[in-house]
Amino acid sequence: MAYFELDDDRAVDTAYVAKTIFMASVFGLAIWEVWSRHTAPSLLEGEVSVALILQYLLSLESRLVAEALYFLVAGLTLGPLYLFVWRPLAQRFTNSRHWFVHGFSYGVAMAAVFFVGVLLADYKTAYQSFSDPLLAGWLPGQILGGVGIAGMVRLREMGKQII
C-alpha cells in the first residue's frame, strides 16, 4: 500500500485518497449533469451545457468529442482541486469547518471561473448577456455540484463506504 508522508509524521493511504477523489468527482459531475440536462431545461429556456461551450470555443465538429473532453478534464480536476486546494484554503480563511459551507463556496467559485471564461472568450452566441436565463442557470448547478463533491468527501471521512 502506498502512502504519502506528511510533515507531522502522519501517513495517508494514497489508494483511499484516490478513491475519494474519484468518487467525489463522479458524484459532483452526476449532480451537475442532472441539473444541466434535466432540471435546468424545464426551468429555463434550454440546456446548460459545458460541451456546447467547448465545441464552440475549440471549433470542434463533434459534440461527442466535446463531451468526452469535458468529462476527462472535469473528472480529473474537480475532486483534486476541492480536496487539495479549496478545502484547505476555506478552512484556513473562514471560521467554518463545515463541509456544506466549503462545498457551497466551491460551487460559487466554479461558477465565477465560468463567468470569467465567458468574458475572456467573448462567448456570445449561446449566452448573450449575464441576464440570460441560461447563464443564470450555471450558479445553482455549480453550487449543487460543489456541495455534492464536498458531501462525498465528508461521507468518506466519516467512514461510510459507498462503493
Strand segment tally: 2
Order of helices and strands: EEHHHHHH
Helical residues, percent:
over 70%
Instruction: Give the C-alpha Rg.
Output: 17 Å
What gap, in angstroms, lies between the N and C termini? 19 Å
Uncertain runs are 1-7
The largest sheet is: 2 strands, antiparallel
Strand order of the largest sheet: 1-2
Number of helices: 6
Could you report the average pLDDT, rounded to the nearest whole number? 79
Strand content: under 5%
Shape estimate: globular
- Structural class by helix and strand composition: mainly alpha
Could you walk me through the main structural features you see in this protein, from its secondary elements to its overall organization?
The protein contains six helices and two strands; from the N terminus they run ββαααααα. The model is unreliable at 1-7 (pLDDT under 50). Helix 1 (14-43) crosses helix 3 and helix 3 crosses helix 6 (138-157). It has 163 residues and is mainly alpha-helical. Strand 1 (3-5) and strand 2 form a beta hairpin. The protein has helices at residues 14-43, 50-57, 63-93, 99-121, 133-136, 138-157, and strands at residues 3-5, 11-13. A two-stranded antiparallel ribbon has the order 1-2.
